[in-house]
Each structure stands twice: as C-alpha cells, then as structure tokens.
From TrEMBL:
Residues 23-356 form the Glycoside hydrolase family 29 N-terminal domain. GO terms for molecular function: alpha-L-fucosidase activity. It is found in: Lysosome. The keyword Hydrolase applies. GO terms for cellular component: lysosome. Homotetramer. The record marks C285 as: May be important for catalysis. GO terms for biological process: fucose metabolic process; glycoside catabolic process; lipid metabolic process. PROSITE patterns: ALPHA_L_FUCOSIDASE (PS00385). It catalyses: an alpha-L-fucoside + H2O = L-fucose + an alcohol; a neolactoside IV(2)-alpha-Fuc-nLc4Cer(d18:0) + H2O = a neolactoside nLc4Cer(d18:0) + L-fucose; a neolactoside IV(2)-alpha-Fuc-nLc4Cer(d18:1(4E)) + H2O = a neolactoside nLc4Cer(d18:1(4E)) + L-fucose. This is Alpha-L-fucosidase. Its EC number is 3.2.1.51. Residues 1-20 form the signal peptide.
Amino acid sequence: MGIRQSKLLTLLLLCTHLSAFGGRYTPDWKSLDARPLPDWYDEAKFGIFIHWGAFSVPAFGSEWFWWNWQGAKNPAYLLFMAKNYPPGFTYAEFAPQFNAQFFDPNEWAEILEASGAKYVVLTSKHHEGFTNWGSPTSWNWNSVDNGPHRDIVGELAMAVRKKRSLHYGLYHSLYEWFNPLYLNDKKSGFKTQGFVYYKVMPELYDLVTRYKPELIWSDGDWEAPDTYWNSTQFLAWLYNDSPVKDTVVVNDRWGAGCYCKHGGYYNCADKYTPSELLNHKWEKCNSVDTLSWGYRRNMRLSDLMDLPTIIKDFVNTVAFGGNYLLNIGPTADGMIPDVFEERLREIGAWLKVNGEAIYATKPWRVQTENGTVPVWYTSKNTTVYAIFLSNPMQDSFQLFSPITSEKTVVTLLGSPQALKWTPLHSSGLTVLLPDLPVTPAGAWSLKLDGVA
C-alpha cells in the first residue's frame, strides 16, 4: 500500500468511525475513562506475556538490542557484533533468520492453557517495528513477507481460541526507534503526524478488525502526548463500533502522562507493585527472566525467578487487586525454552489446587498480615481465603484478622476435611493444621467460610 493510499484509508476510517459517536463514548478521556471494565478481565487474574520478534535472533542483552547497539552505542553490544558478525551487517539482516521453523501454535496454546492463565498477550510489534503479521504498512518488515513467512498473530489466535479458557490479546508499540516517519514527526516537536496517519492508525485498525483481540496492551507512547497519537479517537471507535467493543480491555499507555491516569486498567510502570489498594483496576507485568523480556541466549539460571518467587509475586498482586501478567521469551526458531515451560506448568499445577483462592476473587478488608508466617488474603462473596507462602513447621497456625462465629468452617484447599480451630480473643483464630502436602511452590491456601 502506498503512502497516499494509506493516508486516505486512515482518514476514511476516522471519518466513518467519528460519525458513529452518537453512541455512548466520545473521544475524550472523561467519557472513555467512564467505561466499565469488562468482567472477564478482573476475574481472569493471570495472563502470559510473550515477547517475540527479530530481536529473538541475536538474543543478546534484551529485546532492546537494536537500540542498545545502534542508538545508545552500548560497548557490550558493539563488541558482541564485532565478534560475531561481519563489518557492515545491518539489523534488517536478522529478519530472515527469524525463521520460526519449530513454531507450533497448538503446542504453545497447550502450554499456555496448562499454566492456568486465562489470557495471552502476544507481541504484534515491538519498538523495532517488525510486525508479526502481514501489516500492509510494514512492507518487507513483517513475518509474512520476511523471516518465517507466516502470520504469527493469526496462527496463534486460532490456536488460543480453541482453548475456551483463554482470551487473546495483543501488545502493540506505538513508536518505532528508527522509522523515518516517526523521526520526522519527532524533529517537528510532534507538530506533524505523518507516522500516525501512515503507520500507527492503519496498523491498529487492521489488528482489531482482522484478529479481534480482547485486550490491547499499548506501549511506546512516552515521547509524545496522546493528541499526537490520536489515542482518544481510536479508543472511542474501539469502544463504540469495533468488533470487540463489548469485550475489549486496554491498558493506560496512550501518550505521555496517561499512564496510571487514563485507560481501561493501569500498568503504570513495568513491574509496578503498589503497597496499598488502588481505586482502579491494575496489572503487574513481570518476566521470568529478570533481565529481559525477549529471549537471551546468555541468560543464566540465577537470572530467572524460581517458582516460589513467582507465586509470592502473583499472590501479592492479586491480594492488592491486581492481575499478574508473566512474560516468557521464545527462541527465534519458535521454541518455548524448557525452563520457561517448566515454570508455566508448575504454576498451573499450583492453581489446580489453589485457583479457587485466586480466580474471580476480590481484595478483602485486610490484604496481608504477619503472624506465625506471612499471610495474604483474598475473598469471594462470603468466603475468605488465607494464602501462606511458607510452612509454619508446627501443628497450629494463627490468623489474626478474621472474625469468627459458631458457623465458621475452615478447610485446606485440596483437602476435603474441615480443620479444627479455636477463636482468638475478639478476632482471629488458631487452626490445627494437617500434614501439608509437598508442593514446589511452597504455598498453601486456607478457605474460611462463615467469617465476618
């Protein structure tokens, strides 16, 4: 598609969609922020993030490889290229090596489902600009015209949707480090919008109409205001007229100053961890590899979160009202590394027993307490769950926050027998614990029915 055709398409789409704003939502934050978040997202609690692209070929340092090499001129990246690639080698030459030869979307979907996750967020395009579908505005810099010659976004969408428990979402970077159109707009102080009209908006409309994602994880927004990105116009169309208008959720990265302020749910910052309840739905994204979101060939076991660390992070997030989005990075040939698959399956095994204390829960009046061992609380209707992440190593276990009654019943998730307990003063109880089952996660959940 030529530039003139692309611009005409974008303007036509905008005019068509803006004409429909006689509905509920107008292209301003006051209206957009008033939209209720679809229930499925809060109930899901757990999602898997997948960072995959041309950066998976050098697989060194992080997914910001191109920027660190040719933008920041990082000495470690310069040395890596000097040692391993011939003089004059360009970043574009990595794309043909992004072959995805072992990419089996059905196998990925099985692993994702086994993790216990309820939604998946795939990188459709990172800051390098390489798209994982045949974007008509990214000629030869996409996975259909180059590299694997496959529609990765579409293939994974089909496989994930066969698993009825999974919702499909897409990550999309608004900006591209070295795109000349973006650099021209940046040079103008973002007074021009060539990149938005010719590239960003056509791609976003194409992604939504073609693949119908139920979640859009926007990123790469921070250098320019939302008025440059035309974010509110796009979101108004998304909420009013798109094929996913009733189910789609979005995050808060739609322009400089928007995060933690505007959008469907808040990401705020990567690995965001509030220490108190927020009055708005939020999500923590974290990565199994603590040093990168994309796959690194030079990662070490000590760089990775172990299962107990992941479960603790996950439980803390849910107790404070957040969703937990855990990232993995596949290899360039399409394999999910064994260590990542192991982590995901172990989380799924823990959730099979303890998922009742996670899925569709709400924060309780107390989020955490330190007693015999640290405890995190969640709730569902009249039931309270107490999740403890270390073995008390004794027969009795004290909880200080629940207010009991004669009708209180305490059970250990995974065990059908009610546990004996005695009250503690005006609130709290002492529970007589059974032998705790061995779990690699080192975490167990008590179910308390009939407490205030």
